[in-house]
Amino acid sequence: MTVDDSGSGTEAQGRAEPPPPSASRERGRGDDSRPADNGEDPLALRLEQLILGAERRYTPFQAARSASVTVETATRFWRAMGFADVGQAKALTEADVLALRRLSGLVEAGLLSEAMAVQVARSTGQTTARLAEWQIDSFLEGLTEPPELGMTRTEVTYPIIELLLPELEEFLVYVWRRQLAASAGRVLQAADDEEMVDRRLAVAFADLVGFTRLTRRMEEEELGELVEAFETTAADLVAARGGRLIKTLGDEVLYAADDAGTAAEIALRLIETMANDETMPELRVGMAFGTVTTRMGDVFGTTVNLASRLTSIAPRDAVLVDPAFAEELIRTGDAPASEAAAAEAAAAAEKEGEEPPTYRFGLQPMWQRPVRGLGVVEPWLLTRRDTP
């Protein structure tokens, strides 16, 4: 987006209309199929105008000037959103100018620092880029198969996008508001300001066993279906049980929960669900509990690294947790300190004529072992004591 163009755009905005399908079919691949003067497909430009709601009007310099920001600031925001530099091309619309005004206005009002505004642009760009790629690759691809012989893909794509765009936009805003409300609620429950950023969380990695070997044996489409099924199963279980899916990495998912009991329940449910599906590989899970730094929806820190290391040494269809995670389960009464302690508690309750304590989980200490970069760790094997 770095430029030195000082011209001004005067072209009127407009919303391109698609040609009648019949007219396009009569022309075949006539005028609309010829490249534009700048080498771009005019049909692609028409789709862009439909989605953006306006035609290209500004160079980056003109957009920055119209938004009353420097070109350097505009370039930082533009790149943070994930867009390539466009040189001196007239490639920006009124919406781009408005976005620059909004971000810079938040900075000028003191609501955001410039660094934070760049983070907002980057996190939003990264999240929506992945969403847009998925929608085009998986959603629109299946909908844009020409229903009639002789119709081009573009003739089908344009009216479908025109119909879907407002509905998908409304749904996106709805989900974002719901997620924002849930996240704000979690922050308000933090004990102090430091806990809002550096929080004590349960963090877990769930990893498909032998995935590298599968990539050599399975066809690409079959492998893609397996990964999608795994990610879908994991996402549904994490959400249903009150956890938060941080990210998916193909054969691995990372999730977090505010308490160890929730994370433990999710882990065992994942193992049980995958074990009942003959088409899925075995699973292993590693979890740790402790202080976690959150940035742009991701989590970082020693606790996260420890959970990852535990996953790599976990047995098949098993869950390993670190000592802090085990202590938290014991503290909250979700697991006994040992089977002997559970028996003693049951005997004491029976003697007093009371109901014996019930525990959801069992913990079995494993051999101490060195963990790369984190020293010697004593992992605990997590099991279920009650029926799922």
Key descriptive features of the protein:
388 residues; alpha+beta; two-stranded antiparallel ribbon; 10 strands
What does this entry look like structurally?
- The chain is of the alpha+beta class.
- The protein contains 14 helices and ten strands.
- The protein has helices at 21-27, 42-52, 60-66, 71-80, 94-108, 114-143, 153-188, 193-197, 211-217, 220-240, 260-275, 302-313, 323-331, 339-351; strands at 198-208, 244-248, 252-257, 283-295, 298-300, 318-321, 361-365, 369-371, 375-377, 380-384.
- Strands 1, 2, 3, 4, 5, 6, 7 and 10 form an eight-stranded mixed β-sheet that branches.
- Strand 4 (283-295) and strand 5 form a beta hairpin.
- Helix 4 (71-80) packs across helix 6 (114-143).
- The radius of gyration is 27 Å and the shape is elongated.
- The N and C termini lie far apart (55 Å).
- The relative contact order is 0.07.
